[in-house]
Please model this.
Amino acid sequence: MARLRNTTATSAGGIVVRYEGDVPQLVVGSRRRDRGSVTWTLPKGTPNPGESREETAVREVGEETGLEVRITAPLDSIEYWFVQHGLRIHKTVHYFLMEPVGGDLARHDHEFESVRWIGFDAATELLTFETERALVAKAARALGTERPALVADPNERVAPAGHGA
Model:
């Protein structure tokens, strides 16, 4: 059995927050995967040559959501492994808290099949990956919007394989 070669990859993205009254909402997008499955994720993407993490995050979030955004604070990074094209990839995604300053969700690019605003309380049910659910819970705490449903179980471990690019 052949061993897979290891490599690394870096991306940047954001949790875009708006308020409907006093209730914060964030943007998520869906993608079709193999065998017809759908994943709901936070917007993120790969840097262009010479781009900073912040520039990448603003550009990628804008492309994938159709929104014009600005960074309001740095968030944590998440890490996971996946296999693609015969490579085992260790990916780090750097996230930022953002706010919309213009744009329209209808202008999102082809990378997401659909994009929508959801309440933070819906994120634990809708987001596909535990690493992103935990990050959203942390952002909710930072925003002072934590509700009991947002608290991730620190003992829950989800295998990072299959997280996707």
